Amino acid sequence: MGAPSSAILSEFFLQYIESNQIINILTKNKILGCFRYIGDILILYDHTSTDINNLLNELNQIHQNIIYTLEPENNRQINFLDVTISTANEELKFNIYRKPTYTDTIIPYSSCHPTQQKLAALRYFSNRPDSYPLEQEEKDKEKTIIQNIAHNNGFPSHIINKFINKPPPQITNTTPKTKNKNNKKLATLTYVGKETCHISKIFKNSNIRIAYKNRSNLQHLLNQKTDKKDIYEQSGVYQLTCSDCKKTYTRQTGSNFEKRFKEHLQA
């Protein structure tokens, strides 16, 4: 897992060796193109002028803790991130790629989550085909897959049709949006249903931005200790009260309380 800064420092280091060592290796081996996203790399090369195994060996000699592996194309296609890239008649074709372990499980419509959170997956799925140069046939296949995913998770037909039939997004302005100088404070509310939404509307015109959280998650469930340690097996500060004069005796012990109480009785 590492520290929160691990990912940033790792990226800095990779960019450093890319600009100082890897670029020279790629040039020497006549690589046509190299594209990296975090730990996945796509390389374009001409097999008549490049020995890909020799390239792999050179890359693995850069640093002992950075090991590269090779996955060549199969049947003139290769998977990179969430896209399958294939070649046919000297043309590139693209399709959405899903791993063999992929399941169609998303937040069910009946789940006690904010509506925007439940619709987030469908919104992403429906926008993704328009982000890649897919042919219309592949886009239609993707729509069918999205319909099945939504149906299997209990979404009503009118919501499914809304996402399936919506027009592709239009890019009207590429100018970066300026950040709102009025920095709002963030507050979180535990989502328990529509009542939480009604409460959040109270803060609509305030300087507070509301975000929802849900306690029914793995972290909350796994952190619940089922085997609570007996208090008498623990150590710490204790207090004894005299049954005759009602005076109290307060002390701290490194032994467990049961052992310390027995010592008092034997004294």
Would you kindly provide a written description of the structure presented here, covering whatever features stand out?
Pfam families: HTH_animal. InterPro entries: GIY-YIG_endonuc (IPR000305), HTH_animal (IPR058912). It comes from Coptotermes formosanus. Residues 233-267 form the GIY-YIG domain. This is GIY-YIG domain-containing protein. There is one protein chain. The chain is 34% helix and 19% strand. It is α+β, with helices and mostly antiparallel strands and 267 residues long. It folds into 4 domains: 6-72; 81-168, no CATH class; 185-221, no CATH class; 236-266, no CATH class. The strands form 4 sheets. The protein has a 3-stranded antiparallel sheet, with no helix packed on it. A two-stranded antiparallel ribbon has the order 1-2. Strands 6-7 form a two-stranded parallel ribbon. Helix 4 (136-152) packs antiparallel against helix 5. The longest helix has 23 residues, at 6-28. The model has no long low-confidence stretch (mean pLDDT 86).
Give the integer mean of the pLDDT values. 86
How many domain modules? 4
Shape: extended
Helix count from the secondary structure assignment: 8
Radius of gyration: 30 Å
Strand order of the largest sheet: 3-4-5
Helix content: 25-40%
User: Largest sheet, described in full?
Assistant: 3 strands, antiparallel
Order of helix and strand elements from N to C terminus: HEEHEEEHHHEHEHEEH
Number of strands: 9
State the end-to-end distance. Answer: 51 Å
Low-confidence blocks of residues? none
In terms of DSSP E residues, the strand content is 15-25%
Q: Name the structural class.
A: alpha+beta
